[in-house]
């Protein structure tokens, strides 16, 4: 059983995805993650993107804590249905539509985005079987849609290698919690060539 940890909807019980195909973030990892994100001051008023959202627990937590908008992207039918249910619960509790569910693959979602779309916080908890090349491709597509000062969090198995960060995105922190590793990255400006 998962729940919203803090904020306006704190304590609200969330629906879980049935079956073995999703791997929910443990409460311990979720609490540590959000403590760190609040210390970075990147949640309140943020435009948030939750890729590979599963039940949507991470994204709706940001909505409860004051995010302005939350886009939850999930391709699997069962997970997307649960994600929509959890988004509706949080939107109802907040009294406004903050969280929106997009039932599609992360790659297609990023390919279909209009120019000018930007996020302040991106949460990525891809399935462990997702290959490193596929993850690198998603990060590469994502980097064009990050606001200045954005934070990207990638949750992976602690046995997985560090993600291959694309040009313009750089790791600034990593934290391990048992079998889970959180990688934190931010957009960086490439240095200009002399004379530019």
From TrEMBL:
Enzyme Commission number(s) of this protein: 2.1.1.171
- GO molecular function terms noted in the UniProt entry: 16S rRNA (guanine(966)-N(2))-methyltransferase activity
Q: Which UniProt keywords apply?
A: Methyltransferase, Transferase
Q: Which domain of life is it from?
A: Bacteria
Q: Provide the top EC class.
A: transferase
InterPro entries, A to Z? RNA_MeTrfase_RsmD (IPR004398), SAM-dependent_MTases_sf (IPR029063)
On whether Methyltransferase is a keyword of this UniProt record, the answer is yes
Quick check: keyword Transferase in the entry?
Answer: yes
Identification of the protein by name: 16S rRNA (Guanine(966)-N(2))-methyltransferase RsmD
């Amino acid at each position: 059983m998962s729940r919203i940890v803090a904020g306006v909807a704190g304590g609200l019980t969330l629906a879980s995805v049935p079956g073995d195909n999703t791997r929910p973030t443990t409460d311990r990892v979720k609490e540590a993650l959000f403590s760190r994100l609040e210390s970075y001051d990147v949640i309140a008023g943020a435009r948030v993107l939750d890729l590979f959202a599963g039940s949507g627990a991470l994204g709706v937590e940001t909505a409860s804590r004051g995010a302005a908008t939350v886009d939850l992207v999930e391709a699997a039918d069962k997970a997307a249905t649960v994600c929509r249910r959890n988004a509706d619960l949080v939107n109802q509790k907040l009294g406004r539509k903050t969280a929106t569910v997009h039932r599609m693959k992360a790659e297609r979602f990023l390919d279909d985005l209009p120019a000018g779309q930007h996020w302040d916080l991106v949460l990525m908890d891809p399935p462990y079987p997702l290959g490193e090349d596929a993850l690198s491709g998603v990060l590469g597509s994502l980097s064009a849609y990050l606001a200045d000062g954005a934070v990207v969090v990638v949750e992976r198995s602690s046995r997985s290698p560090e993600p291959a960060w694309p040009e313009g995105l750089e790791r600034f922190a990593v934290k391990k919690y048992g079998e889970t590793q959180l990688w934190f990255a931010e957009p960086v400006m490439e240095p200009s060539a002399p004379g530019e």
